[in-house]
Amino acid sequence: xxxxxxxxxxxxxxxxxxxxxxxxxxxxxxxxxxxxxxxxxxxxxxxxxxxxxxxxxxxxxxxxxxxxxxxxxxxxxxxxxxxxxxxxxxxxxxxxxxxxxxxxxxxxxxxxxxxxxxxxxxxxxxxxxxxxxxxxxxxxxxxxxxxxxxxxxxxxxxxxxxxxxxxxxxxxxxxxxxxxxxxxxxxxxxxxxxxxxxxxxxxxxxxxxxxxxxxxxxxxxxxxxxxxxxxxxxxxxxxxxxxxxxxxxxxxxxxxxxxxxxxxxxxxxxxxxxxxxxxxxxxxxxxxxxxxxxxxxxxxxxxxxxxxxxxxxxxxxxxxxxxxxxxxxxxxxxxxxxxx
Length: 340
Fold this sequence. Notes:
There is one protein chain. The protein is elongated, with a radius of gyration of 31 Å. It has helices at residues 2-32, 54-63, 70-79, 98-107, 123-134, 138-149, 167-181, 184-192, 197-210, 217-230, 237-247, 259-262, 286-293, 319-335; strands spanning 43-47, 88-92, 113-117, 157-161, 302-305, 313-316. The chain has 14 helices and six strands.
């Protein structure tokens, strides 16, 4: 009889425990672990004001009926002391539970964003993009790029970064990518050209502006390397145009590089100044940098646009040959009525 009572008691305990466990799971599922967001697509939540509580951050979503169980969410927030939300970018979707969301914002477990930076962008354009993306003051973005990082240390690519980065953290992230790019082999190649990595970037920015044809990049780079070795001015049209645009930013589209442009006295104008300009004209694609590092000078010293193959150039070793090529090109411009 005693054994029978013990068995019944054991069964009751197991039953009550099982029911309690199931009820606890259901309570957890529909309260603590209930979805904090309902929407067709993922939602990027940006916390800008670090003085805001989690409830204040979520209030606009609750007002839009995007939080499935707002009452339970507020109860849970109260139990957690309604903590402050840390600055950051957080992705919400149907798999994010209420407690998980509170912890994400409370401890700053943010989701990264893509920082995309391509070639052919000027320092002003990059700084403006950083200012818009991260909310930096424009002068802070400019200082971070040009002074703290160094424009020539910016390797165009797409990077995972955190939106909460302040300018020093972003600079450190991009300096790491610069160090990754400049491998021992690339450093050795630059040394063989008697150029520093920064000088390679400056030269590559000229090559990139000069030609858009991948099969011509190395040849153009070789020409400029020959002129540098000979001590001749580069006389690169992109540098003259860059200098003219810096001096006259509202001058419009330049389709013909005239003497008025090449004669301008400016540090970037390689028609007037020897050696490389003091900085890169724009961000440079990694493929262009490698084309410069792989360039093999062949003795060509002059080039001009090829009227028969738009986008390409004709090259020359002698000035007399270059004058003939240049005359044919300018004749084609005159026939098309291109004066500036």
